[in-house]
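Page 47, continued from p. 46.
Same chain as before, 196 aa.
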Amino acid sequence: LGDDGVRALAGSLSVKQVKRLILSSNKLGPEAAKALAESDRMGNLQELKLYKNNIGDDGVRHLANSEKLPALQALRLAWNNISPVGARYLAESKNLQGVTSLTLADNKIGDEGLKALAASESFSNLEILDLRHNGISDEGAIALAGSKMFPRLQTLDLNENPLTEKGKEAISIFLIRNLIRLRLRDEGKSLDLSNL
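Result:
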């Protein structure tokens, strides 16, 4: 499809009702992300999957700065050559508060990128975060585990990162605390852990 094809797609009236758009393995660069981010036709889009492209940090910047994706709930950007800079663009975005699922697997955000995300106020509704194979060590995992910015996060994938038991334990405790917070009822007087 390429960047030119995505530009044509983003300008087409036929995509106005599209809720799920999958453009994996299409040799897309930052210009394709820019076309999607600037399109007036993507207002109903709930899921955007751009796996195995090369949008890089510039493409992430376009998506993060876009005010034209108000319904977006799932942003899947695995295998896109995203560095800590791209993670910072996501962290600083004021337009991604509706996102409940974020996939950044197989990039290179590292500890610096995860620390930026951990300090972000942009993802308070995030429930699923996939950070497999990103060069994240205990330092990044502990920063995330100490964050108060992800109160709804329940699923976190940090596989294929060089974590030791220290980092894994910090993440486990973090996820358990989130689970308990989400299941507390009656002003903290009732805790239902059934069907886990």
